[in-house]
Specification:
With 396 residues, the chain is α/β, with parallel strands linked by helices. The protein has 2 domains: 4-48 and 303-393, Aspartate Aminotransferase, domain 1; 49-297, Aspartate Aminotransferase, domain 2 (3-Layer(aba) Sandwich). 43% of the residues lie in helices and 14% in strands. It has 14 helices and 12 strands. The chain has helices at residues 4-11, 15-30, 49-61, 64-67, 77-91, 106-117, 135-140, 160-166, 189-206, 267-281, 288-297, 305-321, 343-354, 378-394, and strands at residues 36-37, 100-103, 124-129, 145-150, 171-177, 211-215, 238-243, 256-259, 333-337, 356-357, 359-360, 369-373. α3 (49-61) packs across α11, α5 (77-91) packs parallel to α11 (288-297) and α12 (305-321) packs parallel to α14 (378-394). It binds pyridoxal-5'-phosphate. Residues 41, 105-107, 132, 177, 181, 215, 217, 243, 245, 251, 256 line the site of pyridoxal-5'-phosphate.
Length: 396
């Protein structure tokens, strides 16, 4: 006997993974230059030079026992201090090293936070659709109720009145992901302020805080001079789940953190419960080497030029062909209307007729669109344009 929900999750790979695997398989058959894979969000820009230099230095300089040993569960002191200092400098919020808990990336950070805030099986965790597909199983497999709420599908900003309609006395938290996967939209300060006022008011009415879980792996991936508001500076009951997977192009190294502000309601208790949740999930002591790298590279930022060039090329080309799409200001995704509204049919046709791999937005619980990840080579985008054109023309 095994847990049926987990069995289903483990035996049915996520849509994006299936497309990605198909792309690799096809590349071996027809040649990599004939497959146009826009499926997965694997960074295509190398990690900053200082990251690799630091790895070499650390391996040469640090005592091997220490380097490969366990760290404290919450992370090395030096690492936590370097990141706290960087956040204080950038966002003018008094972040203390003791408020940071290091994790193996954003996913375990979110899972531990959800676990910490799930009081019983009536607890509800909300997310704004479209959203990162694993939010749903993160919540339900943990025994809480998952409550999706549609974004405003013109702007893909949070629809605050829709959030209000779905709030209940059991709402423990709302997951807010900005810059957003899959839309590339950055939530505005005004919308976040509106959300903060709502959550504050409803929290008082229900007699307990409603937390924002700010999932921020794309925080530094922004274009056109747009800034990403630091949500704890707007709403005190915000728990930040951060990752270096995208910002420093280190998804395979599994490093990130949770930040629980000391000024959040019950902040110390939430932090302790997150530490407990990490413990029972077996997610403690992220790689020591990577923690040491982050200590040296906390101020490093990604080189956005290549992503920006891809963004402009794909957005301008697709809209010129007649596709409809909101211009993304962050992350590395384009969220495009499927020509006749059936995104699954569009994605299947593109795959079978052109080896063009795009993700139907049903995977993000917001049908009618497809996501194209532009963290790919500029050359592949150029070579894929005739396939995108043939696809839209086939619908005319
Ligand atoms: N949250 C979002 C919105 C993501 O897009 C991803 C990865 O693509 C994650 C979380 C998981 O990130 P990590 O690799 O740090 O676990």
């Amino acid at each position: 006997m095994v847990n049926q929900e987990l069995y289903q999750l483990g035996s049915t790979p996520a849509y994006i993974r299936r497309l990605f695997a198909y792309g690799l398989q096809q590349a071996a058959i027809v040649g990599p230059d004939k497959v146009f894979d826009f499926s997965i969000g694997n960074p295509s820009v190398p990690a900053p030079k200082k990251v690799n230099e630091s790895i070499h230095r650390i391996v040469d300089e640090v005592d091997s026992i220490k380097l490969h040993g366990y760290s404290m569960a919450a992370g090395h002191d030096g690492n936590r201090k370097a990141v706290a200092d960087d956040l204080c400098r950038r966002f003018g919020v008094d972040v203390k090293p003791s408020e940071l808990f290091f994790t193996c990336g954003a996913a375990p950070a979110i899972v531990s936070t959800i676990k910490a805030l799930t009081v019983d099986n009536r607890s509800e965790i909300m997310a704004i659709a479209p959203f990162f597909p694993d939010y749903r199983p993160f919540v339900t497999a943990n025994g809480a109720r998952f409550v999706p709420v549609k974004a405003d599908t013109e702007t893909f900003q949070i629809d605050v009145s829709a959030v209000e309609e779905h709030l209940s006395a059991n709402t423990q938290a709302i997951i807010v992901n900005s810059p957003n996967n899959p839309t590339g939209v950055v939530y505005t300060r005004e919308i976040l302020q509106e959300l903060a006022e709502l959550l504050d008011r409803k929290g008082k009415e229900y007699g307990h805080p409603i937390y924002v879980i700010a999932d921020e792996p794309y925080r530094e991936l922004v274009y056109d001079g747009v800034t990403v508001p630091f949500i704890p500076g707007i709403y005190r009951n915000t728990i930040v789940c951060y990752s270096y997977s995208k910002s420093l192009s280190l998804p395979g190294e599994r490093i990130g953190y949770v930040y629980v502000p000391g000024f959040a309601d019950d902040g110390a208790a939430v932090y302790a419960a997150i530490a407990g949740a990490a413990r029972i999930s077996g997610h403690v002591c992220p790689p020591t080497l990577m923690q040491m790298v982050i200590e040296r590279c906390a101020e490093e930022r990604p080189d956005l030029a290549a992503y920006d060039e891809n963004r402009q090329l794909l957005y301008n080309s697709l809209t010129e062909m007649g596709y409809t799409c909101i211009k993304p200001h962050g992350a590395f995704y384009l969220f495009v209307k499927a020509p006749n509204g059936d995104a699954i049919a569009f994605s299947e046709k593109a795959r079978l007729e052109h080896n063009l791999l795009v993700v139907p937005s049903d995977a993000f619980e917001c049908p009618g669109f497809f996501r194209a990840s532009y963290c790919v080579s500029n050359d592949m985008i150029r070579r894929a344009l005739p396939a995108f054109r043939a696809m839209i023309e086939s619908y005319r």
